[in-house]
Amino acid sequence: MFNVPLALAVMQVLAVDLGTDIVPALALGTESPDPGVMALPPRKPGDRLIDRGLLLRALVWLGSLQTLLCFTGFFFLFWTFGYRDLLHLPRPDLLPYAERLLTRDGMIYVLATSIFHAGVVTTQIGNALACRTERISVFKIGLFSNRFLLAGFLVELALICILIYGQPFQTIFELGPLPLPYWAFIIWYAPIMFLAEEGRKAIMRRRK
């Protein structure tokens, strides 16, 4: 719609859905119920498992925040390489991966998709931590009490590093060797996601 290069290639989307997200998602399944859940009134028979509140929280709130953060990194990388008109970027995404690597614009674009992909991973770490509870603060149950989830984060980070820096995965998933200083930028995505959701839960508790 805005003629901006695609931030993720098809293979990178598959790598998120079928790779980096799987282990943390399984670890969330081992989470204990929220303390005090049995004191709440039972759900009404007509209540939906995925209701409007859950959709708004997942798509409008957390999804939009995650998208904003990832695109911030995407445009930040272009900006650091001297691009100032960020809404009129070149379109190397329309070329095959091998041809992208032959031009400066193409190589920078590959790095931009890499920082976006790595940003998805770091935002999902903060998101997974925050979503361990539905109402109460995660600090009350212990920030690091789910050891399976912590292991999932390590696996997730190891996988994204293998994809970005290792061959033949780098070529298969159309990624590039992201310079290490950019990790200092995107590592903040995790606490931003976590604290934003913790703040939302705190506001909702006060309203009740």
Radius of gyration: 19 Å
Distance from N terminus to C terminus (CA atoms, Å) equals 41 Å
Per the CATH scheme, the topology name is Calcium-transporting ATPase, transmembrane domain
Total strands: 0
Counting helices, strands and paired strands, the structural category is mainly alpha
- The CATH superfamily is Calcium-transporting ATPase, transmembrane domain
Q: What letter string, H or E per element, gives the SSE order? A: HHHHHHHHHH
The main sheet comes to: none
Give the helix proportion (percent range).
Answer: 55-70%
- The CATH class turns out to be Mainly Alpha
- Supply the number of structural domains: 1
Task: Describe the 3D structure.
The protein has a single domain (10-30, 52-207), classed as Calcium-transporting ATPase, transmembrane domain (Up-down Bundle). The longest helix has 29 residues, at 52-80. By secondary structure, the chain is mainly alpha-helical. Helix content is 62%, strand content 0%. It is built from 10 helices and no strands. The protein starts with 9 loop residues before the first helix and ends with a helix.
Short description:
The protein has 208 residues and is mainly α. The chain has ten helices and no strands.
Q: What are the main properties of this structure?
A:
Calcium-transporting ATPase, transmembrane domain, single chain, 208 residues, 0% strand, elongated, mainly alpha
Question: Topology of this protein?
Answer:
Blueprint: H1 10-20, H2 22-28, H3 52-80, H4 97-100, H5 104-130, H6 138-141, H7 147-165, H8 169-172, H9 183-186, H10 189-207
